[in-house]
Design goal:
The chain is 55% helix and 13% strand. The protein is globular and about 60 Å long. It has twelve helices and seven strands. By secondary structure, the chain is of the alpha/beta class. It has helices at residues 5-19, 23-30, 34-43, 48-58, 62-66, 76-89, 109-119, 125-144, 155-164, 174-196, 251-266, 271-284; strands at 71-73, 92-97, 149-154, 202-207, 215-220, 226-230, 245-248. The protein has two domains: 5-69, 434 Repressor (Amino-terminal Domain) (Orthogonal Bundle), CATH 1.10.260; 72-284, Endonuclease Chain A (Endonuclease, Chain A), CATH 3.30.870. It has a seven-stranded mixed β-sheet, with helices on both faces. The termini are far apart.
Length: 285
């Protein structure tokens, strides 16, 4: 199997960002210049000894770094950066999110997410800040060059979001909880608006039951097709730091998830019918 050097560089960058390591620190530990590190992150690492040292520094196997194993990410920042890279290469995205996708959220959502992350108990503030910055980059990238996007979201999860509100912890004053529920209503209304007047290339389907899986995203077309499975949450009680996410280019795995997304899409509410259902949910919540 020929090694894709640029993908090796992309993985190195994603793991470095996920670990919160400054370029100077990684360059020093690898015994190279900062300029050389940036070249490696762009074009790949051409030397086996450096590949081995980089894998050890990032705490991953050499096989994972060169792309012959499933990629695992224990931090949201590293995973979100890898997703940004993969989305940039994809020609089509199939996504099942729970219940907010950064690719479809309202312009106000990053600030709402930042507030939830700031108030979450026991959070890792630097790691959350890194993750949030990369999420905003993903959003900007999709806006600048939209990929055809088929997105699925479960109605029960949206109903729960409306009841709970965009909160990062329990115990908020009643007046503040009301404001947070208003924020959740704004996000659900943004989904309804996109159902009523879909942006070019965007399809949204509403699932009447919660699918038995974590959030996943299938990235089709481009040089490599992949599927990402994520434990990270962007709705109420968000979690963007702790969990193990995976990214796989194994063809059978990609095909299974793509098939699942298409089966869910076939049974989903779409278009005006879906928008009317969301408007009804908003009116009665």
């Amino acid at each position: 199997m020929a090694l894709d050097m640029r993908q090796i560089g992309a993985r190195l960058r994603a793991w470095r960002l996920g670990a919160g390591l400054a370029p100077d620190v990684v360059a020093d530990r690898l015994g190279v210049s900062r300029a050389a590190l940036y070249t490696y992150e762009k074009d790949g690492i051409p030397r086996l000894d450096l590949l081995q040292r980089a894998a050890g520094l990032m705490g991953v196997s050499l096989a994972a770094l060169i792309g012959i194993e499933v990629e695992h990410f224990a931090s949201g920042a590293g995973f979100f950066e890898r997703m940004r890279q993969a989305e940039a290469e994809a020609e089509q995205i199939l996504a099942c999110f729970d219940p907010i996708s950064i690719l479809l959220a309202s312009p106000a959502y990053p600030d709402r997410l930042r507030q939830m992350l700031d108030e979450a108990p026991g959070g890792d503030a630097p790691a959350a800040a890194r993750a949030l910055a990369i999420l905003e980059e993903r959003r900007a990238q999709q806006a600048a060059r939209p990929r055809p996007l088929t997105a699925l979201v479960a109605l029960p999860r949206l109903a729960q979001l409306l009841q709970t509100g965009l909160v990062g912890r329990d115990g908020l004053p009643a007046e503040e909880r009301a404001r947070r529920r208003d924020g959740a209503r704004a996000e659900v209304a943004a989904i309804a608006a996109q159902l009523e007047a879909p942006p070019i290339g965007v399809q949204i389907g509403l699932l009447e039951a919660v699918p038995p899986s974590q959030t996943f995203e299938v990235l089709l077309g481009g040089q490599v097709e992949r599927v990402a499975v994520s434990p990270f949450r962007l709705g109420e009680y968000p979690s963007v730091t702790d969990g193990i996410a995976t990214l796989s280019a194994e063809p059978a795995t990609v095909a299974l998830y793509a098939g699942l997304a298409r089966r869910l899409w076939e049974g989903a509410l779409k278009g005006e019918r879906a928008a009317a259902r969301l408007r009804q949910l908003l009116a009665t919540s």
